[in-house]
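Dear support,

We are seeing what looks like truncated structure output for some complexes. This example has two components. We would appreciate it if you could run it in full and send us the complete token output so we can diff it against ours.
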Amino acid sequence: MSNQTAPLPDAEKLTHEGFSTGSQGRILLIACGALAREILALKEMKGWQHIDLTCLPAILHNSPEKITDAVRASVEKHRPVYETIFVVYADCGTGGQLEKACADLGVDMVAGPHCYSFFEGNAHFALHDDEITAFYLTDFLARQFDAFVWKPLGLDRHPELAAMYFGNYTKLVYQAQTDDPALTAKAKDCADRLGLAFERRFTGYGDLATTLSRWMDKEP
Amino acid sequence: MSEDDDIILSELDDEELVQQMFDDLYDGLREEIEEGVNILLERGWAPYKILTEALVGGMTIVGADFRDGILFVPEVLLAANAMKGGMAILKPLLAETGAPRVGKMVIGTVKGDIHDIGKNLVSMMMEGAGFEVVDLGINNPVESYLEALEKEQPDILGMSALLTTTMPYMKVVIDTLVEQGKRDDYIVLVGGAPLNEEFGKAIGADAYCRDAAVAVETAKDFVGRRHNQMNA
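Here is the complete output from our reference environment:
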């Protein structure tokens, strides 16, 4: 599952700048930078040579109120070049605003509240009523834990604040998209730093894979 | 050793000490705040005066700089933690000395949501402003709110949520109050990072409060208007 031959963008670049494969295909996926590796892996596995990928900076994850405008601007920018555009974001904390914008723009987006849900499968994730005290990491967030969690919350300067931020959490669930022992060890270390129990849950690409496949079936 | 390490709080006069406590709150120095509070008590300051002039005064500066983007959440949390230290000393004394009570609030984070940093800040600043606060904690179903409202008979119901997936639950609580004919018995204030004024209006709250300082001002304003109506 982890054998990707597509060029892997640098995680720092994906976090702060975004990424683009360049324009060669007919179909464009506009995605969160946190999904770049996974989308490129699926593209490679499925042989979707006719799709291009452009990623917005993943750090928008920490300012969800900015996501809708950023996606809208990207769709409008690329619309003249591509026959079809898909938005590879779920609601992602936009409170329905992104869904409205995508409906206005006439583009499809991924169903579900966030990537934690669609990686696990939205239907399955919805059953986790008992898991409100879980803090989730994906492969990307495990790699970029410092940039997304530790530093923005000031824990690099004041680790004593961890109890105030995470005192009501009980466990860190690492939703693994790939089998990568080094990444699992890193995720475990994140749990230790936050003082949380650790659970690894292999998800693969979940609804991300089925959604992209469905889109590609529609636009062969 | 920094210059501040040389300051002996007990050697400062009252005005200098309060100014120093503003600085110490800003820097999140809990032990120094506790020491300052104890010194002012020894000098005969009334607990309520210490609370409003030294602690709330200092946190007001912190709140303003947070709103202006000068301070960020970690610094506000450190300041709040320092204020909490001072409050812990003053709280039992406030009860004994009969501090003025502006109103009463029941507050809690909604069902499905375990985030309480914002709620805790609001609770603390409301207490600092003279409100009695009954904090229901996190993950509250509508039944918890209703039970607390019945028991406590507050002026204000405050609800908090951090997640877009949980904030709609505020409407469940408000709709239940409407169904039971109790909505107008309370001022309903809502807050949390993903909320906005439009959302507050849409769900039938009296006001959306963007931060703890706004919550205090809004609460005072509504309670004041309510009392005026009752006295008219």
